[in-house]
Amino acid sequence: MYASREDIGYDFGDDSKVGSKPIKPNPNIDGGWAWMIVLSSFLVHILIMGSQMALGILNMEWLEEFNQSRGLTAWVSSLSMGITLIVGPFIGLFISMCGCRKTAIIGGILNALGWILSAYASDVHYLFLTFGVTAGVGSGMVYLPAVVMVGQYFQKRRALAQGLSTTGTGFGAFLMTALLKYLCTEFGWRNAMFIQGAVSLNLCVCGALMRPLFTKDIVSEKHVVRSNSEDNQAKALSHSAETIKSNGALSEEPEKKEEATNEEVLDNVHQIELGGKSRSGKSMYGLRILKTVSQLTVTVRKGFAIWYSSYFGAASLFTNRVFVAFIIWALFAYSSFVIPFIHLPEIVKQYNLSSQNNVFPLTSIIAIVHIFGKVILGIISDLPCISTWNVFLMANFTLVTCILTLPLMQTYVTLAVVCALIGFSSGYFSLMPVVTEDLVGTKHLANAYGIIICANGISALLGPPFAGCIYDMTHKYDFSFYISGLLYMVGIIFLLIQPCIQKKQPREKSTEEAQV
Predict the structure, then answer these.
(1) Could you tell me which residue, 6 or 191, shows the higher pLDDT?
(2) 130 and 179 within one domain
(3) pTM assigned to the model
(4) Of the four, 104, 350, 435, 515, which is 20 to 30 A from 111 by CA?
């Protein structure tokens, strides 16, 4: 059912054509520059996710400045967080056309622009556009490449690498909260947002560190003819497609006619350029522009073809039943994690635990243990005798059990224990890219994970208002936990059922063939 980890990061070619020299795995896989990718992703999580978790500081300033309702003002931060995740499928298109590095650099500029323009806001609706949409889209353009690049650079220690990089969210929540609080106190919220925009330009540096994995072939010899290199590329593509198909993921047919047409256009332009060397410099300049435009057109068409086939083609991601179940799970999972942060203050107030909670807040317990949970679950998942899928499911079962039992706890100690378990088990967020890559393969990771975080974004947008509506109707927080927990359990059941169905189908097919 899963793509083999051994198929990731290797160059496939015909040894007889290139020579007797064996083809070795890329030395940057699981080492070398791979750890710079982890550092880059870690900083991205600090600057994006950490900043979004610290928006409560700015939310109070906006309430005082614009004198609008809490509900309307809260939509600014909700839009920013939601759009960051919801635009995932469209960011996959940019990655297919431009690559992770260029997408992340453009996103860093857009995110910084959103922060800076928000410093001149005249009302809340202005912030919807500048901060909610502009900064949100920019954040999404950096966040998805940061996750995808870690998946591409790691093979044996993917879970640990993802766990280390995503701990930036927890560290960022502490660092950015302290930074924004200091900036708002010393310079006012407008200057604080302007300064934060300048800080966000470091996202461009993080994007620049996302060096493409296969910029150069590991075995490269100048005397190899063009036909041999084309044969090697064709073999690599066919090998990758067979690997994905054999593991129950995707099978994709290359558009040969379109590629042939694109190559003919570039060849014609190249021939014209060679034949026109004796012409004037102005004509040659025009030919270079034509060649650049032609190459850009080819890149865009190929990227769009890959993106379109992943979502709507015959080899669509949605033909993978386990992946569809994973999407359904993602729609319910994120809101269940957010709801305790919404209602914990009410629980503390109801049981007169404010004095103890002020010493060590329950939400801080979740945040701190959450950091360790990501790393520890990553280490466990990378053990050769442990299945990442099983660790992922066990963490989900632990989290949904805590969500359902939390309203029953009435003392600070019992609440602290349950909150610690929530923080630890929710560390499975670092395993989501690993599980996604196992389901669809490295080639489709950007588009597939874009869909998953889009589902999480929808859950993040609708979850808090849903919990608020339930509380308004019942005047009890308990039902929010119970209903969200039951919906979460439905998503987990989907994850359990689909793998069993896929295992059954080959057996049924083999029995039918035996009867024939």
Answers:
(1) 191
(2) yes
(3) 0.69
(4) 435
